[in-house]
């Protein structure tokens, strides 16, 4: 088969890496890809937003299957374009991807189909939002309705901080179109985790859970980022809670989308929190999570091409997993998620017991330089989470000694057995 992966981030590199191990893949393309994908895929210099060129490339090159990685192309209707052209594509339509594109829509869907989540109200009027916040008190959560690159969420410890967030989003247009409307919701206490599933209509095939770390600095301090590290499976969750999350959240959501005329085919990602009342939804994504994909896909023993083919054809892919732990730590550019320098040379680091997933790098003659905020993820699999984390951190010494980079030193630490 000829397979095309659309995207350029760590998530897409992880997908490419998994696909490259398939005996069914003859040629693997990545558009536009990143420097780390060059060994496994032919990079195609077409942007993720260039629908016409992507469809034309797939047709001209006899691509058998296309996988759309990022959220923005999905919400712009890229999957619809491939479907209309009679091409096989893995990713939800624009209508189905709204589950990620609008937090208000997602909340309405959950409310209608009795899917457990935090209480909320949506606002376009800043003064009304501030009145509601004062009535509810803090802590409280303020979210931009649309896509904001993982940064449109403020967990406000005080009413004043929440009101400032409202003004930033609604009055100052902090996130542009994404914050023309906001969702203000109840703060939920508990440990967060992620649960992704392969979905086709009402058919849901769940993956292992993962634990993401979104805050920039150790101790869950600092601003929210796109994710500073992850591990899988999440260690704090019982199988009873896992089953509840699959049945009461993922399956209900998939069925609800079908009922709404927005049947979903692709990866449904649920960002969940384990509360005293059981798992509840924090957010939905319409694609593989990043960096969760980087620690979940290595644990999948199945051929990913066969899994995607089975799901698209309505067959049960019979997912199987290594009985191991996988952990990954993101190396970021100094200054991220704020401003940062590009073109910083990456030091050499030992890779014998780890793997590297690139996100913000460019290749140069004798190595790599940075091109983004989250530079790469260093990860590994081991028999226990402790061993996986120890191996990853042992390999990161070179970055620790370089002022151009930083990484969290406590990914997974509170979940280790020792």
Report on the structure:
It catalyses: 5-phospho-beta-D-ribosylamine + glycine + ATP = N(1)-(5-phospho-beta-D-ribosyl)glycinamide + ADP + phosphate + H(+). Belongs to the GARS family. With 418 residues, the protein is α+β, with helices and mostly antiparallel strands. It has four domains: 2-94, Rossmann fold (3-Layer(aba) Sandwich), CATH 3.40.50; 119-186, Dna Ligase, domain 1 (2-Layer Sandwich); 191-312, ATP-grasp fold, B domain (D-amino Acid Aminotransferase, Chain A, domain 1, 2-Layer Sandwich), CATH 3.30.470; 325-415, Phosphoribosylglycinamide synthetase, C-terminal domain (Glycinamide Ribonucleotide Synthetase, Chain A, domain 4, Alpha-Beta Complex). The chain is built from 13 helices and 22 strands. The strands form five sheets. Strands 10, 11, 14, 15, 16, 17, 18, 21 and 22 form a nine-stranded antiparallel β-sheet that branches. The chain has a five-stranded parallel β-sheet with strand order 3-2-1-4-5, with helices on both faces. Strands 6-9-7-8 form a four-stranded antiparallel β-sheet, with helices on both faces. A hairpin with a 2-residue loop joins strand 15 (265-275) and strand 16 (278-285). The radius of gyration is 21 Å and the shape is globular. The N and C termini lie far apart (46 Å).
């Amino acid at each position: 088969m000829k397979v095309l992966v659309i995207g350029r981030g760590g998530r897409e590199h992880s997908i490419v890496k998994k696909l490259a191990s398939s005996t069914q893949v003859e040629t693997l393309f990545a558009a536009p890809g990143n420097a780390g994908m060059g060994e496994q895929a032919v990079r195609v210099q077409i942007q993720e937003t260039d629908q016409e060129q992507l469809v034309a490339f797939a047709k001209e090159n006899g691509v058998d299957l296309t996988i759309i990685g990022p959220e923005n192309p999905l919400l712009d209707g890229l999957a619809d374009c491939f479907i209309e052209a009679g091409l096989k594509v893995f990713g939800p339509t624009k209508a189905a991807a709204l589950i990620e594109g609008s937090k208000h829509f997602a909340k309405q869907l959950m409310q209608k189909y009795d899917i457990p989540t935090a209480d909320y109200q949506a606002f376009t009027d800043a003064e009304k939002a501030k009145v509601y916040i004062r009535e509810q008190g803090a802590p409280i959560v303020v979210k931009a309705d649309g896509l904001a690159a993982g940064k449109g969420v403020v967990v406000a410890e005080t009413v004043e901080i929440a009101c400032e967030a409202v003004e930033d989003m609604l009055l100052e247009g902090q996130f542009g179109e994404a914050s023309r409307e906001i969702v203000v919701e109840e703060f939920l206490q508990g440990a967060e985790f992620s649960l992704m599933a392969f979905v086709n209509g009402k058919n849901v095939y769940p993956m292992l859970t993962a634990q993401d770390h979104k805050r920039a600095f150790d101790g869950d301090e600092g601003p929210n980022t796109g994710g500073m590290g992850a591990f899988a499976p999440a260690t704090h969750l019982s199988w009873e809670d896992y089953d509840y999350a699959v049945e009461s959240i993922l399956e209900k959501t998939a069925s609800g989308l079908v009922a709404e005329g927005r049947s979903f085919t692709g990866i449904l990602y649920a960002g969940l929190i384990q509360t005293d009342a059981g798992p509840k939804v924090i957010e939905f994504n319409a694609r593989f999570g990043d960096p969760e994909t980087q620690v979940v896909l290595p644990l999948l023993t199945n051929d990913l091409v066969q899994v995607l083919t089975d799901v698209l054809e309505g067959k049960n892919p019979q997912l199987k997993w290594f009985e191991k732990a996988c952990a990954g730590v993101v190396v970021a550019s100094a200054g991220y998620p704020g401003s940062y320098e590009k073109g910083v040379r990456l030091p050499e680091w030992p890779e014998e017991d780890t793997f590297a997933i690139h996100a913000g790098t460019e290749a140069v003659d004798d190595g790599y330089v940075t091109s983004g905020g989250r530079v790469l993820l260093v990860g590994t699999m081991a028999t226990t989470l402790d061993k996986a984390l120890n191996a990853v951190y042992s390999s990161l010494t070179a970055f620790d000694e370089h002022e151009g980079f930083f990484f969290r030193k406590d990914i997974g630490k509170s979940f280790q057995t020792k």
